[in-house]
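Quick one before lunch.
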Amino acid sequence: MRIVIVGAGPAGGTAALMLARQRRHEVVLLDRDEFPRVKTCGSGLSPLCIGLCRELGLHETMARHAYGVCGLRFTGPAGHMATLAGPEGAWVVPRATFDAEIAGAAERAGARFEQGFKVSRLLLDAAGRVRGVAAGDRELEADLTLCADGAHSRFSVDPRPKRTIATIMGWYEGVPVTPGHMEMWFARRVSPWYGWLFPETPTRVNIGLCYHPDDPAKPRDIFDELVTRHVGERLRGATRLGRLRGAPISYTDSVGPVTRRGALYLGEAARLTNGFTGEGIFYAMKSGVMAADLVAKHGGRTFGGTTLEREYQRAVERAFNLRFRVALAFRGFRGSEAFTALTALLAFKPVERVLHWALLHAT
Ligand SMILES: Cc1cc2nc3c(=O)[nH]c(=O)nc-3n(C[C@H](O)[C@H](O)[C@H](O)COP(=O)(O)OP(=O)(O)OC[C@H]3O[C@@H](n4cnc5c(N)ncnc54)[C@H](O)[C@@H]3O)c2cc1C
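Model of the flavin-adenine dinucleotide complex:
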């Protein structure tokens, strides 16, 4: 049986890898772009995501490309600054490399990866069941279709208005940073969102900003204002690599419909991101694993009854609903005066020193 996957980000790539490893189906991974391609993303991998890479046997590969992070320097809404440092806990792996490595691993496991294939529509049978995809005149029949085409998904079945976080970011060479430290600014200007500086190599960083999509100011002006304030003088001898890029992050407080007959929706195409942090890579990969596991469970039987779809819907709800609600509650807290007070407390030197000691001895 043939499974076609639309989109080779972490969701589609992971699904392709796990399905190809099952060696039971013909797996075809499609992407409109040629890889490696730049993806607008901070490329930060949380400990959860690193753990998942380990489970999937991708840890060693990704570790070769990873910039290890052992500390966070943050600035609170009222300007208090503090550093929380401990053992290495997070990674930054540029998405061009990260996504290409997963897709490459899927190919080596037996998936066919077609690049430059921009799916323009889903093919439906007379009963409305998805029976494949098409790019212009070219049709590709499938027994099961996985839609992993990201935040702009053109095939989404979720009827609710989309909730998004707006972003703008760029890459810079030569910004002085504390080695191994990320930076975040919880500036009132974009509250409850934030700005960040993530190191990708000892000399290259990505700098970006999440903000409210209804903010009437020009994105470039908000970016310039906050980056000047928080990176300031350090930008003086630095070079920007390419243009600034913007992209939405699509999120939800509860999982909506993530299936239709003959198709499952993965990753950001299903709005699976953390509404507190904007993290989406872990959620994308996890949904890819869940889809592949359920396909394995349903084995060689013809897909397109409704059992697979129903079980995937339930599995995604069980895995993420609580996390999404907690994420939005935390986001509410971050926009509050209590959060400002907390950042002031953390910036108080004796507290910072105790936390530093505790984090170093926590593992
Ligand atoms: C500025 C920014 C910073 C972020 N920072 C982080 C971070 O630090 N850490 C983190 O965990 N998350 C971060 N995220 C979120 C994260 O990037 C996404 O949640 C994640 O990429 C979702 O993965 P995905 O596989 O679902 O979709 P994507 O990664 O978007 O992949 C979708 C793929 O589908 C392809 N595609 C789209 N349409 C078609 C089509 N019609 N036909 C064929 N192919 C198609 C695209 O080319 C793309 O390769 C950030 C997002 C933004 C915008």
